[in-house]
Give the backbone structure.
Amino acid sequence: MAVKRPRRPATDAPKTAPRPPKATAAPSGSFVPLRSLRPIPQSVDAILAEIRRIYFETTATSIDADLQHAVALLKALPDEDTRERATVYMEGLAEMRKEFKR
């Protein structure tokens, strides 16, 4: 014959030591792809060439990271006149992102 044990109420639940917080992934807005951690080129022509390379090599799976990298490069440009030279590529990346998200 099986011995029946009385059930404990939920308030008598055994107390355990608090668990340390789990390591969580960084919020989606703060994701930085490893390839964007390369040092930002110092010359304007090198920055524009890198933005152009990103534009031609981006794919549907890499568009978000590529766009973030291109924006970081754009911010490194010294003045508005040089930023205007990258406008075509930046608008193209934004348009690709719209199309890939459909």
